Structures are given as C-alpha cells and as structure tokens.
C-alpha cells in the first residue's frame, strides 16, 4: 500500500486562514510585550538587591571598625593599668596611700608640734584619733581596690579578697623620759608590753623615748648637789636589755630631742609604706641586692641581675672578677654543687677544684689563677657543716 507525505495541518490551516494568522501575530506581540515589561522589573529588583548588599557591607565594615577601635581602646586601657600596677609595685605611690593615726595625747605632748610639722613637710598624711592604747601611733594603707586585687593576686592569700584599707602591723609609743622612768619604777612597764600584745598580737611594738639619758643625768646631778636620796635611779639599762633578749618584735629607740623623735617617726612612716611593695627576700637574697659590688666593676649591671653572681660576690674576699671566672666554668650553682657532691672526689680535690681557673682582665685576656685560698673559701662557704670552722684553716 502506498502512502503519500504527511501534511502539517496547523501550519497549513494557518497559511490558508488569514484570521488564524492574525491571531497568532497578536499572541506573539503580546508575548513580546510581556517579556519587555518583565525585563525592566527584573533589572529594578537586581538593583535593589545590590543596594541592599552594599548597605550590608558598609554596615559590616563600620561594625568591624568599631570592634577594632574597641579592642584598641581595651588594649590601651590594659597597658595603662599594667603600667600603673608596675608603678605601684615599685613603691612610687607608697607615700601617698599611708596615713599615720596619732593618738591625741601624743599631739598634745612636747613632741606633737614638731612631729606634725615634719609629717606635713614630707607630704605624709596623718590623722589625730583616740587609739585603743593611749600614747600610741598606728598606720593604715589605703590602696585602690583594683590595684590591691592585682598586687596581691599572686600572694599566698590570693583566695582571700585583699582589703583596700589595711592596718600596718606596727605600733609605736612616744614616751617622755619621766613617763618611761615612772613605768619602770612602778613595775608597770612589762605589764604594759603584755597588754599591748594582747590587743595587737601580730604587731611589732616600738618604744621611743625622748631625752631619757639627759633626764637621768640631770636628776643624778641635782640629787648629788642637794645631797638628797629621795630619788632612786630606775634600772633603765636592765629593762632595755631584757626587752631585747626576752621579747620578740619589741624594740626600743632612744632619741636625744624632739627633732630626732620626729625624724625617726617620719622615716618609719616612709619605710612602712615602701616595705608593703618591696619584693620579699629569699634565701639567696644577699647584701642589699648587690650593693657590695664595687663601682669599678665593668659588668656591674650583669652582676646585679644574676643571683648566682651575687651569691659568689657575697662570699668574703671573692672579688667580682673571680666570680665571673667561676660562672664562666659553672653557669649556675647546681653545676658547681654537682661537682662538690661527687663521691668519687676527695675533700682536698673539691677544695682545690677552682684553683686553676683564670680570671680575665678588662681586655678579656686571661690573667692569674684564682688560687687555692679562693677555691677553698668558695667550697667551705657552700658546703659548710661546721659554723665554727674558719675558711682559712687547713
């Protein structure tokens, strides 16, 4: 069976029917018009999204800028606080935060005017109070809370909150010569010490006397001239000696006049303020932080910073250049002690271990040996078991 080619009816109808062709053109035109209207709308939405994106980026940059500025300000505040803490640790503001609480009876005594004027001249604060014990002087430290917390956070009592206002564990009594003599004559001096100790158990006590020996000498001369026996000399020396030998943290100070009393109390106030911030001494702290080092020593700054060098220089007759030679061979105390505790060496070998070391002159050239005397002295100081043994004994 033979079949002819298929005929496209729609296209044929469209070609044959003018109305259908017209309607097709209208539909195409409407579609093109709808497409043209849709394109600008899509473009407008894209521009809005872009504007919104730009605004978001701008806002994010602003937030990042503010965050960086806040971090910078925070870092600057931290540096400033650290610097302030370092200044407090160095004791720069120590004198500004201490206040002497002076009993009114002391202010009304002959020493009062000179003492108050001396404190004012030095810029030290004081307050007239009625203390628990008459005639006493106490001290208080007033440190800002944030500084106090930072300063004492590394101490043994770091779990306890450090108070910003704290008592200094020190109490002084200013006694005129007649008052001190009456306390001794009446047998009430040592009971007075016990009473103060009960009220201030952890405090150091200091008795300051004014014109004591001058007063005693005058009374003795007057009694001798008048041939009188009405006055008996109190055992002042015995009492002061017993105070030094039988009592801990109880001191005495004799002053010749009011000016010396005021000078002593001003110096005491200053030292009590500074010792609060002073670094605690260790068993290797020697000779006032290296003050014994000679001024002509080239490496003086190095010796002050090195504990091992300071310990060596503190040994009598061990000059800084000898200590440098020992440190060059044995960089630390442990390295030298290892040699000293070597059981395979005899005592004589250990004593002469350093004798052949040579110290260097200012040009860095080796000079003389340390010698047996120096070597023996170092060994006996570091390994001493008998305190009565002399370093030079054979």
Automatic annotation (TrEMBL):
GO biological process, one term: DNA recombination
Annotated Pfam families: EME1-MUS81_C, ERCC4
CDD domains assigned to the protein according to its UniProt record, in alphabetical order: XPF_nuclease_EME
GO CC annotation: nucleus
Organism: Urochloa decumbens
Region (Disordered) location: 1-82
Cofactor: Mg(2+)
Annotated family: Belongs to the EME1/MMS4 family.
Sorted UniProt keywords: Cell cycle, Cell division, DNA damage, DNA recombination, DNA repair, Endonuclease, Hydrolase, Magnesium, Meiosis, Metal-binding, Mitosis, Nuclease, Nucleus
Keyword Cell division set for record: yes
Domain of life: Eukaryota
Predominant subcellular localization, coarse grouping: nucleus
Compositional bias per record (Basic and acidic residues), positions renumbered to this chain: 18-82
Start and end residues of each ERCC4 domain: 119-267
Protein name according to UniProt: ERCC4 domain-containing protein
């Amino acid at each position: 069976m033979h079949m002819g080619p298929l005929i496209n009816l729609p296209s044929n109808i469209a070609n044959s029917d003018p109305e259908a062709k017209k309607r097709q053109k209208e539909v195409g035109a409407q579609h093109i018009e709808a497409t043209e209207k849709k394109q600008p709308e899509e473009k407008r939405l894209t521009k809005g999204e872009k504007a919104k994106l730009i605004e978001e980026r701008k806002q994010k940059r602003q937030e990042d800028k503010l965050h960086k500025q806040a971090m910078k300000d925070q870092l600057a505040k931290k540096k400033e606080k650290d610097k302030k803490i370092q200044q407090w640790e160095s004791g720069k503001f120590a004198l500004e935060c201490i206040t002497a609480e002076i009993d009114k009876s002391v202010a009304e005594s002959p020493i009062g005017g000179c003492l108050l004027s001396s404190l004012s001249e030095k810029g030290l604060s004081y307050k007239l109070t009625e203390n628990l014990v008459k005639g006493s002087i106490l001290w208080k430290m007033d440190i800002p809370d944030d500084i106090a917390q930072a300063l004492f956070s590394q101490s043994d009592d770091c779990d306890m909150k450090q108070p910003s206002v704290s008592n200094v564990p020190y109490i002084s009594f200013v006694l005129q010569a007649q008052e001190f003599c009456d306390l001794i004559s009446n047998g009430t001096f040592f009971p007075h010490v016990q009473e103060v100790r009960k009220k201030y158990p952890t405090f150091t006590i200091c008795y300051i006397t004014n014109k004591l020996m001058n007063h005693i000498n005058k009374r003795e001369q007057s009694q001798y001239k008048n041939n009188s026996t009405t006055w008996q000399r109190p055992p002042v020396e015995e009492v002061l000696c017993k105070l030094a030998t039988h009592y801990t943290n109880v001191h005495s100070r004799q002053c010749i006049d009011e000016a010396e009393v005021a000078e002593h109390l001003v110096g005491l106030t200053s030292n009590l303020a500074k010792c609060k911030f002073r670094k605690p001494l260790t068993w290797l702290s020697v000779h006032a932080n290296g003050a014994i080092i000679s001024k002509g020593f080239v490496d003086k700054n190095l010796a002050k910073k090195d504990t091992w060098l300071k310990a060596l220089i503190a040994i009598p007759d061990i000059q800084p250049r000898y200590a440098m030679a020992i440190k060059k061979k044995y960089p630390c105390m442990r390295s030298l002690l290892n040699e000293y505790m070597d059981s395979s060496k005899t005592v004589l070998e250990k004593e002469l271990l350093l004798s052949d070391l040579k110290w260097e002159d200012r040009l860095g050239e080796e000079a003389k040996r340390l010698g047996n005397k120096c070597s023996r002295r170092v060994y006996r100081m570091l390994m001493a078991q008998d305190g009565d043994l002399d370093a030079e004994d054979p």
